[in-house]
Design brief:
The protein has 232 residues and is an alpha/beta fold. The protein is 33% helix and 29% strand. A 6-stranded mixed beta sheet has the order 6-7-8-3-9-10, sandwiched between helices. A 4-stranded antiparallel beta sheet has the order 2-1-4-5, with helices on one face. It binds adenosine-5'-diphosphate and magnesium ion.
């Protein structure tokens, strides 16, 4: 494995058994991502995007195939090691920000650091810095229901980044946002990419995918490298 390859998937299959029928949801997926890449996975609803994202993010394991993330062979890891991999390597962003309603923006951002055992003062400092990074310093004491959808998503991005993960994994990050707010989130992603973050963004929206520097298409569980977005 060359040093700059960040992750490598070979022949990944995901099969669900439904009754007495096997459903192949991912079909021999090969994917290499280098450190610092900004990649979009573009495909229609039901094509297997979230299934792929869950495998990339170590939330789920493939039925067969090999997946090496940061030098670790994922299929060999125990539940505990997978959890550790997730918390160290991956920052997740979902379509709905999935913030905890009873915690302020600040406390939501601190949460991954609580799980990681970071002391309170350090947690506060790092969460404040991330909220500043996403332009929400003046909203840090607000609860999620006191924030707009775009602001909630920015808090979720701050939460995803606060543990300094090596990869930012976003599943339809603008899916529940209006166009203008979605554009702001995309601008933030572009800035993060320019700073050298590795980003994988999953979307069904060609215009959103076009923000990434590389686009791969997924159709019916098959992944294809896309020359650009125009042939989507
Ligand atoms: P996308 O995110 O592209 O919309 P998904 O990855 O969520 O697609 O789903 C792809 C296909 O896999 C769908 O047909 C879905 O019904 C099926 N699927 C997803 N999860 C399961 C599961 N746990 N059991 C059976 N089928 C599933
Ligand atoms: Mg999905």
């Amino acid at each position: 494995m060359s040093a700059e390859i960040f992750f490598e998937m070979r022949g990944i299959n995901k099969v669900y058994r439904m009754g007495d029928e096997d459903m192949r949801i991912l079909k021999d997926v090969d994917l290499d991502v280098a450190e610092g890449e900004y990649l979009s996975v573009l495909g229609p609803s039901g094509s297997g995007k979230s299934t792929l994202m869950n495998i990339i993010g170590c939330l789920d394991v493939a039925t067969s195939g090999s997946y090496i993330l940061h030098g670790r062979r994922i299929e060999d890891l125990s539940e505990g090691e997978l959890a550790q991999m997730r918390s160290r390597e991956i920052g997740f962003i979902f379509q709905n920000s999935q913030l905890l309603p009873r915690l302020t923006a600040q406390k939501n951002v601190e949460l991954p650091l609580v799980y990681a055992g970071v002391p309170p003062r350090e947690r506060r400092r790092r969460a404040e810095r991330m909220l500043e990074r996403v332009g929400l310093t003046d909203r840090s004491g607000h609860y999620p229901n006191q924030l707009s959808g775009g602001q909630q998503q920015r808090v979720a991005i701050a939460r995803a980044l606060v543990g300094n993960p090596t990869i930012l994994l976003a599943d339809e990050p603008t899916g529940s946002l209006d166009q203008k707010t979605g554009a702001q989130v995309m601008e933030l992603f572009s800035e993060l990419s320019a700073e050298g973050r590795t980003i994988i963004m999953i979307t069904h929206d060609m215009k959103i995918a076009a923000h990434a520097r590389r686009v791969v298409h997924i159709i019916d569980g098959e992944l294809q490298e896309g020359g650009g977005c125009e042939d989507a």
